């Protein structure tokens, strides 16, 4: 199996095709990248910028470059000695436009008689033999249907007609009643939908890749990539939605000839990947959380907790555990109630529970579930604990929960299979997409894959986690930014400084709230942190984020019922950043106060992520400052020309000043190149201790099989405290051999060396042994 040393994620779309990606390969090679990592490239909904709404899995999307584009990219990678990793989407397909998806079109036209009927997860009995499509503005809109060109039309939406169901002169409503689908009010999807979907997205229909024939047809094109040596590895999107993730991964390994595979899997604290998973690791959210927290000051927690309590008007800060139980229950009773009801209908009548009782019990168990899902028999203990918690929280459900538990523990029972597919949906919507916008004490902590109640990680704990990662998942990905992160790496690096300056932040926030008030204190904290993290940013970007964050939180406004008065105040507050000189000055002054500190955090986190155990990924463009906010802000185009020109300056010998964007490019390129060109320097992991007054501000580790044979990473942590304490002073580390800094070219050691000297130019250093160096 060929494995990557590092990867670089590119977002492939019509405005940046596979041909465009092929042209960037020489730059990526110069940067030090080992493999090119592509977003989904199969044919997707027209105009899709992300590609997760695949409409035809049988071909590479022509709008993304088609098969010729993939061939061009693959050839370019091969010519430069690089591999190719591709993101695939096995859980669902895009059905927003039925004519674009031949599988879905066939299902709607022929119903249970369609050759693709077994591909989709439809509860035919609930729909009376029909697929329920929540497409109408209201049920009264059936009057707006028309038959045209042999299709049923609703405004721009087109649907097929089953053979023999239309005769000239028939009313569109009568024709509609004869079809294998039922158009209905979109609001009814929450409780009445009868097909599995991706989370609450009705335009993404789940497919049953656990069926061999479905797997084979859905992956024929993916298989071709490997038989024709076009691709070297795969990233699997959302495996938690599958009926049998472990079985799927075994099939995928066989299909790909044993290729390198990663899964997009969020691991909660203490959770590990099931041993049955035929993959090399995760896409790195777990690594992201560890890196973030080792650069957060634990001393700031008390003050930020107090600020959070005051913003909520309570004696104590938000109770996160209670919050997520509530948000998950809200999701289970709301936008995902159709999935919960489907589970309830699978409980045999002989068990004595009504559908409502069963649904209540199922929803409470899911709300109590501490991880995304189980993989029975793996996770049986977690399920039992969740049931105990549910019964304790709702004693009136003790009988219902007790009745459900043996059914949910049986790996072969349909309700157990579907429960496992559903629990992660509720977790994602209730936690990532709701609670993360409500739990606002420090934005760094509410990142995808993170545990927000873990405020900070001490260096000792970080080292233990890295040693475990080296032993158990050395080929798992590490990352700091992805297309899914709520805030990109350098926005979080700025926000992390707030933990060192909590009083200054509280005063700044109080001023901003007075100048541009929004009647939701916790939301104001979230919004102003995001603005500071992303600044400077356009009005359009910040308005888009502000609206999305407010509606996702769902406290003061929602997607389905926007509160116009509240949202007008949000819009006014964001406008004030640009139009009110007083507000602009407060934001500018605070950003200026923390800018150098956040730059230290940024390059420190980047160097650690690029040199720690695992396969480091660089998200497109993040070799410069990456201060994006949540999707779609983090999918903006990248100016590769500017990066290429700056890299050429570095390679010509120009050393950038500390704190500049070019300094991050220097760190990124030198770390990537060293890992690729001297892999023997990254074979182990050992903490490196410092001595002296500021030793706690140094995060240091060696990556060789022993302390003298590998690369040595030195990174500054908690820079505000370091500055306030008078700098490094007598802090020192011992070097057992002479080592050269890959960033500056300076040589240090052997013996005890001053950290102030090693970090005299930049807040980080990447040292490599001088002996045995390649020419």
How does this structure look, described?
- Helices cover 42% and strands 14% of the residues.
- With 775 residues, it is of the alpha/beta class.
- The strands form 7 sheets. It has an 8-stranded parallel sheet. Strands 19-20-21-26-23-24 form a 6-stranded antiparallel sheet, covered by helices on one side.
- α12 (337-345) packs across α13 (355-368), α18 (489-497) crosses α20 and α18 packs across α23.
Features:
775 residues, alpha/beta, 8-stranded parallel β-sheet, 6-stranded antiparallel β-sheet, 27 helices, GH, Trehalose_TreY, GH13_cat_dom, Malto-oligosyltrehalose synthase
pLDDT average, as an integer?
Answer: 97
Kindly report the oligomeric state of this protein: single chain
Tally of alpha and pi helices: 27
Largest sheet entry: 8 strands, parallel
Category from helices, strands and their pairing: alpha/beta
* Intertermini distance: 29 Å
Report the strand count: 26
pLDDT < 50 stretches? none
| CA radius of gyration | 27 Å
Principal-axes geometry comes out as globular
Residues in helices, as a percent range: 40-55%
Strand order of the largest sheet: 16-15-14-5-2-1-18-17
Strand percentage lies at 5-15%
